[in-house]
Write a structure and sequence with these properties.
The structure is a single chain. The protein is mostly helical. It is about 85% helix and about 0% strand. Helix 1 (about 1-15) crosses helix 3, helix 3 (about 40-50) crosses helix 8 and helix 4 packs across helix 5 (about 80-90). The mean pLDDT is about 80. It comes from Candidatus Niyogibacteria bacterium CG10_big_fil_rev_8_21_14_0_10_42_19.
Length: about 190
Amino acid sequence: MLFSRIYQWTLAWVHRRHSSWALGVLSFAESSFFPIPPDPLLMILVALRPARWWKYAIITTSASVVGGAFAYFIGFVFYETAGKLIIESYGLTEQVAFVGKYYSDNLFFAVFGAAFTPIPYKVFTISAGLFKTSFWVFMAASFLGRSLRFFLVSLLMYVFGLKMEKFIKKYFGILSLMFFILLVAGFVVIKLYL
């Protein structure tokens, strides 16, 4: 029932003039404070409007990278207020110190890995600002990781087109659950190994 409502809400955006805005806002928020990734909305938008696959990939990537820069700013300037609140809400306070050491070893690959995989990107974006890492290296890694991720998702949806639309409609609940499991797994990886 819940997944059916989410699917209907997602489908409703396809037929609205502001579907691109919704995708952009979700992508921005996920990079800085919101737990839900934009991938499911991106997938459905591309499946239902395949000719716009590249447009949706650009919107998702751009908004996500800008959201990452915003989170960097939160960590850099407002960690003790907003940044700490976001990190604590995910129960990852202890991992922030490890991320700082990880950054000193290899900032680019740490951020790239979080940007490309289901590992919670926002933990790395806020921490990058907190530890005053190189903003330009952070942005380059974010742009590359997010571009590869969202263009790959969009391209796969474009290539498989309407077959994927039927598949998504039939298995939206399972796909949403899989995204959720990957998201939780990302948090677990950070908690256990960082």
